[in-house]
Design a protein that fits this description.
- The protein has about 110 residues and is an all-alpha fold.
- The longest helix is centred in the first third of the chain and has 26 residues.
- Helix content is about 85%, strand content about 0%.
């Protein structure tokens, strides 16, 4: 195998590993913002993978697809972040709620 092919295979494997790690972080992430960041990272790695496949296959049209996907990913993450600032995502954990209720009852 030529060295260039090995480098492309290594780059593809590195991107896949990063995508797997982003998926794990998205599932495990303790906060909403960790999950949003993991989804954004997964989208970015997808853009890299599409670009790499376009280069390997000799199809420059894939770069246009990657750019459109990057724009959609950016706009959707901004939208989710704006929506997450609303009151639907803001909740108090049950421990804080019970402490607040007991403090109010004492007054």
């Amino acid at each position: 195998m030529p060295v260039g092919t090995l480098m492309l295979v290594a780059a593809t494997l590195a991107i896949f590993i990063a995508m797997i790690l982003a998926t794990i972080r998205g599932m495990v992430g303790p906060t909403l913002y960790d999950r949003i960041l993991a989804v954004n990272m997964f989208g970015t790695k997808t853009v890299l993978l599409i670009s790499l496949l376009g280069f390997v296959m000799g199809r420059p049209q894939f770069l246009d697809i990657a750019i459109v996907y990057a724009l959609i990913n950016f706009i959707s993450v901004i939208g989710v972040l704006r929506y997450s600032d609303s009151n639907q995502f803001k909740h108090t954990p049950s421990a804080e709620t019970s402490n607040n209720e007991s403090t109010e009852k004492e007054r």
